[in-house]
Write a structure and sequence with these properties.
Two copies of one chain form a homodimer.
Chain A (H helix, E strand, L loop, with lengths): L21 H4 L14 H7 L8 E3 L6 H7 L12 E3 L4 H14 L3 E4 L16 E4 L6 E5 L4 E5 L4 H8 L18 H6 L7 H4 L2 H4 E7 L5 E4 L13 H4 L8 E8 L6 E9 L2 H14 L4 E8 H10 L14 E9 L2 H17 L5 E4 L3 H12 L1 H7 L3 E7 L5 H14 L9 E9 L4 E8 L6 H15 L18 H4 L2 H14 L14
Parallel strand pairs in A: 2-4, 3-4
Antiparallel strand pairs in A: 1-2, 5-6, 6-9, 7-8, 7-9, 10-12, 10-13, 11-12, 11-15, 14-16, 15-16
Helix pairs in contact in A: 10-12, 11-14
Chain lengths: ~500, ~500
């Protein structure tokens, strides 16, 4: 399988100076005085059922032992918690929450801490409940393909477990080597396989959740169809840990594909990409597993930063590139379909050039030009990253409009506020990533770019976060991204399930 | 496309004597005195914004004009409402609910009224809000395949609209000619294509919902990925109209398959069916669209009631039959895969015999032997029907155990309490249907069979309703089918969203 470990490089960040406190970054956020502060007595109580190695208590949140648990993977958000607990069982999670609920102590659930919206680290002094030690694969049924796992099982670990059984996980992420199933479900992770296998709202069959007061909701089901009352698990998928802690996941896993084929094509416009995409849905239909695109500037950044010695797989310079992947059960059938499809694109002058990988090494090389984009731009300087979704025809217009807007203001270009503004993403999911280097970090650059891109997305009925979630990073935009009615209903649910508000505060729902 | 209109035959039931009132059938159900009774003044108010043709008011609930709206399709449940309204717009639905909320008048939303659990008809005098006049297809995007429709659009109507555009609906039901999208979503309909296209929790992209107090929740999205706060639409999928009225649906539709192939095989045991199913997932993987099974007795009932003159497609008598359907984008590839698969089953002695349809007529014939089972047993006498799901290896054990249990009690066989006890269903979804004729309707036959089958399913971690829903039919089993914690959380949600309890009372959640 392809290794997609881009996010791992971010671990190096921890050698850099620690990020500023999130509360400094967002001065409007104030600690809610209703929450009790952790005392030695609290820790004493928790130690009655947690061993000493399952609890870190450091009054100085900058001390090495707890600093990395307070800080997110990208070193962008930092809290100041003095306490992190590592429960090993659902019962311990329940005991922790029961106690925190009684004392009204705020908590933040943490999985692999690979999120990019600051959702899995404290903002102030919330107790960190790190789920890494809940890492058992509980059960797998080879007939149905249903796996039941602890929340702390790492995505790649599950995939490796499934491989010899002929199954695979229905989602694939850059962070697969570190992210955990509980976190994936809590953030409703999308990833690279969504267009083929669908979202977690469809693939998760059941959840075990510890509710804010410590009650264990055993909603683990292995049934594909079950309409016995409200589908409670759905509440917790994508709730970013604000309604409870997911401790167990029942997941429907698909059969592992026997054949993977990849082609790269060059195109001259985003209109051509759309045409190619429509034809891919028509001709590759059930075997189409990814349809990714990137622009010429993305190639330039990858080449200059990470692939200086590599020859680009296609000759000449073209405005756009698209990578098309198929996954199927019979290699020769899939190859025929993909080849006929590429030929059709050439005949219709939709693709200007194209190449089909002939080996798994070539597959890796083609994917590398897509996958190395975020790493390359991060290497090139301070990187801004956006994750929006919208109707496919609009996807690249946002990139063009952003370029035009900041060029007119004389803010875009080498040595200016921004450089390397590029667009790439998952055409199949209507999901665009825009990245740029921010060259003047003391300017309003972040704020201005946020404002332009989020406003544009909202004006065009897009989403300000396709898959990364709200966390603390975008909570200040929720008032504009969601209607008063939507926000009110979200608050109604939050209050009904977590009346004391101890679960992951300051995230998702604005004040 | 295959026509699956079994449920339509049930329309004839309305010529029979009207069903007993649901409140007579379930004497423990009492009208909640908190609800206001409809007065002439209420109707007068509703007439200020509804035309005379959009409202039926009959003080005698047995009068022809309103009796069929009070009665379910199968003539099993009957309410005594004097008022049915037919709003044409979301605004009218909002006005109706706002008024009913203020006056605390209970309501029941009604779509195509094809449900089989009594969820879409009143129990007492709830106002019927029939959505049939909200039947516009609002928008379709040929690039993404996303359709936005009014709740009252009939499933087949949408499929016919999509056909020339090369798309299809991701669910297929017997009732497709009458059931409506809003009702499909409200009951989380599963149907015949679930194993291929997944559940509505994955395929519904957005909903417009009128909340119990008349507030319109505009949550219509066309985005495949959107993690902007809680995924509110999920609350209403499968809530059976107890939390609000779905007025608009945004649905992701898949490409229409270019090739459909069907094979029928004979097997000697349910273990062989499981082996065949595992191999089908392995060899047909992405093109497998249905894996149905039935037993020898099912064939007997169909033959004697509806297909006397038809020759069964396979020679001899076998214990089990399985129908395997593929849907794909290239006929010759799919045929090769299916043929190789059938040959493999024969070589391994898993299948004893097999046939592959050579034309669309033959496809219809093979399906007919599966699809006519419910109709045949209904024709053969009063029919009991069950819809349970469980782990695949257990599916047929329930049928065997049921037969054994009632045989020992000397209650099963020609002229006894039950006859024609048969099992069939969707192996791919772990979904079993058990049906039987109840020959002595004045006995405890219904109650005893309910108790045996539901207890067995619950004991074996199965679901008492895979896809039909709870409605009023199974509400008395909810205490046993769901834990106290699950029920409490369901009630918490219900109270938070519908504090006056006006939405579809007496259904889903027990007192």
């Amino acid at each position: 399988m392809l290794q997609r470990r881009l996010l791992h490089t971010a671990k190096a960040c921890l050698n850099k100076p620690l990020a500023p406190f999130t509360s400094t970054k967002y001065p409007k956020l104030k600690r809610n005085p209703c929450y009790s502060k952790i005392t030695d007595k609290d820790v004493e109580h928790l130690r009655t059922f947690l061993t000493s190695s399952d609890l870190i208590y450091e009054k100085d949140p900058e001390s090495t032992a707890i600093a990395h648990l307070n800080t997110d993977w990208f070193n962008l958000y930092r809290g100041s918690s003095s306490l992190c607990v590592f429960p090993k069982t659902t019962k311990q999670v329940s005991q922790i929450l029961e106690y925190c609920h009684e004392r009204q102590i705020a908590v933040v659930p943490q999985g692999g801490n690979t999120g990019v919206s600051g959702g899995a680290v404290p903002v102030f002094d919330e107790v960190i409940i790190n789920l890494s030690k809940m890492d058992k694969i509980r059960h797998f049924d080879p007939i149905s393909g249903v796996a039941i796992v602890d929340c702390g099982v790492v995505l790649e670990q599950l995939d490796q477990f499934l491989e010899p059984k002929g199954y695979t996980v229905p989602l694939d992420l850059g962070a697969k080597g570190s992210c955990q199933l509980g976190g994936n479900v809590s953030t409703n992770a999308g990833g690279l396989r969504l267009m083929r296998y669908g979202s977690l709202h469809g693939n998760v069959l059941g959840l075990e959740v510890v509710l804010p007061d410590g009650t264990v909701l055993d909603n683990i089901s292995t049934l594909r169809k079950d309409n016995t009352g409200y589908d409670l698990k759905q509440l917790f998928i994508g709730a970013e840990g604000t309604l409870g802690i997911i401790t167990g996941v029942s997941l429907l896993t698909p059969k592992r594909p026997k054949a993977v084929n990849v082609a790269l094509i060059a195109l001259e416009s985003f209109e051509a990409i759309q045409k190619a995409f429509v034809l891919a849905k028509d001709h590759l239909t059930e075997i189409l597993s990814a349809f990714e695109f990137w622009d010429q500037d993305s190639v330039g950044v990858v080449k200059s930063q990470l692939m200086q010695k590599s020859k680009y797989p296609l000759e000449g310079k073209h405005a756009f590139y698209a990578l098309i992947e198929t996954q199927g059960s019979k290699r020769e059938h899939d190859e025929t379909k993909l080849l006929e499809y590429i030929q059709l694109l050439m005949e219709k002058d939709i693709a200007l050039d194209g190449v089909m990988a002939q080996s798994s090494d070539q597959i890796k090389t083609l994917w590398a030009w897509r996958e190395k984009i975020p790493e390359a731009i991060s290497k090139s300087g301070v990187a801004l990253t956006y994750d929006v979704s919208m109707d496919v025809p609009l996807l690249y217009k946002l990139v063009k409009d952003t370029k035009e807007y900041f060029s007119k203001k004389d803010m875009l270009g080498p040595g200016k506020v921004y450089s390397n503004l590029i667009g790439f993403g998952h055409v199949g999911d209507g999901n665009l990533h825009i990245m740029a280097n921010l060259n003047k970090t003391d300017s309003d650059g972040l704020k201005l770019m946020d404002e332009f891109i989020f406003s544009w997305a909202m004006k065009n009925k897009g989403s300000i976060t396709a898959e990364h979630g709200i966390g603390v990073a975008k909570v200040q935009y929720m008032h504009r991204a969601r209607s008063a009615t939507q926000l009110q209903l979200m608050r109604t649910i939050k209050r009904a399930i977590d009346p004391k508000g101890i679960m992951n505060p300051y995230k998702v729902l604005p004040e």
